[in-house]
Amino acid sequence: MELFTNQVLAGIATGAIYACMALAVVMIYQAIDHLNFAQGEMAMFATFISWQLMQWGVPYWASFVITLAFAFVGGVAIERILFKPLAKAPVLTNVAGFIALFAIINSSAGLIWDFTIKQYPTPFGSSPFLGSQLISTHQAGMIGVTVLLLIALYFFFQYTRIGLAMRAAASVPESARLVGINTSWMIALGWGMASAIGAIAGMLIAPVVFLEPNMMGGVLIYGFAAAVLGGLTSPFGAVVGGFLMGIFENLAGTYIPGVGNELKLPIALALIISVLVVKPAGLFGRHIVKRV
Amino acid sequence: MTTLLNVKDLRAYYGQVQALHGLSFSLNEGSLVTLLGANGAGKTTTLRAICNMVRSTGGIEFDGKPLNNRSTESIVRFGIAHVPQGRGTFTTMTVEENLQLGAITRKDSAGIVSDIERMYAHFPVLKQRHTQQAGTLSGGEQQMLAVARALMLRPRLMLLDEPSFGLAPLVVRDLFGILGKINREDKVSILVVEQNAQLALELADQAYVIETGRIVMSGNAKDIANNEEIRKSYLGY
């Protein structure tokens, strides 16, 4: 039983990170109808920035905040420079743009900080949480920060005018323009926020997976899977999908014989495919019905 | 009476296809003007051109200021509220959020709150459903919501694209009654595009008849309604 609880809690902790990545992916998908393949690389680059700041002696939380600001501005800049001009371009052009972005960020990180694995500090420590062997303080911190982030985002989108405007711009762009919303800037804002959310995920997972240019590869696959599982049209679904992914991955690795660490990912993805066969729009997604 | 909207030699294009061929008309402050014409005559295109949602050339002046080459969202800030064809409802949001979105460019939060109450007084059914998802409303209710959303801007000019489309005759009567009241009491100028010419002519002061992207007839709404020849050849009733 203790093993089970332990695995579920650890799953929730990594699931929190998948949830952040899934949420970032969904935010951009809602705004521009494309999956951002470079979401993980953007997060990784931001994490390197925070590491660099700490190398220069900036305290953890200060570099955390500076990195968020950097990630936000970077996200907005990427949208303005690269994806705004591609807004009316065909899907494949956009895909090429995302892949280019992926490669550029990945190689730049390698060039600047090289590909050797680096230790990344945790502000929470890694002792047992509240004296319990079930979960470490860093895992508890991962869950705590994610939950705070989700609550903040919920209030932002539900109760602020700019949040309302962003939702309107994503759901019916033409009507949004007709009430005076600058939809183009709302998309840029969405990119900035998605980038900052990804940066949080990167900084939280870096102590676990260690810091290197390819650190987010696996995480992003889980994030995509979580987003698809929950439904690409539902931010709430993406978050639930993230937590489910984390838990299921751990349980499969522990209880299914012969799976272990190596086969965790394929098993988790197989589960998603089975869910999607039954519910193609994901657990919480809506079928988009278009009038013809 | 001052001219609020002045459109001169308007030409509009969808890709290579020209939809408007030099259309001119004007609308006086406080008046209710209707654009009539058959399907495909260019009525919707005219409204879309005013809000720069379609490529166009020619002069569009609002209150003496040119609107050409401004973005749709900045034209709204002049006080022009456009209720598009199909109503443009934010279907996944609540009725109240739809109303708040109508006022998203305004800064006076107290005024917005009281205007929402005013809309509920105009359209009691919206108050009953204010927490409901707007997509679950009936067609008539969604049209009420669309008009209310437009009024939340406190517009000087409201552009309405086929408000009667798909509605039951009784609901249409109701809606047109409200539009007349808004025009008289709130001093909102209205430009309404309609296929239901009979009804629109009862309501309007001025009417223009469009055919294949050109104005072919204009004048006092009553005169046009009483002229049997025009009615038969252009308006089909």
TrEMBL record, chain B:
MF term (GO), any: ATP hydrolysis activity
Keyword Cytoplasm: no
Ranges where the ABC transporter domain occurs: 5-237
Alphabetical GO biological process terms: L-amino acid transport
InterPro entries: AAA+_ATPase (IPR003593), ABC_transporter-like_ATP-bd (IPR003439), ABC_transporter-like_CS (IPR017871), BCAA_Transport_ATP-bd_LivF (IPR052156), P-loop_NTPase (IPR027417)
Pfam family, one: ABC_tran
Keywords on record: Amino-acid transport, ATP-binding, Nucleotide-binding, Transport
Job of this protein: Involved in beta-(1-->2)glucan export. Transmembrane domains (TMD) form a pore in the inner membrane and the ATP-binding domain (NBD) is responsible for energy generation.
Family: Belongs to the ABC transporter superfamily.
Name of the protein described by the UniProt record: Amino acid/amide ABC transporter ATP-binding protein 2, HAAT family
Species annotation: Bradyrhizobium shewense
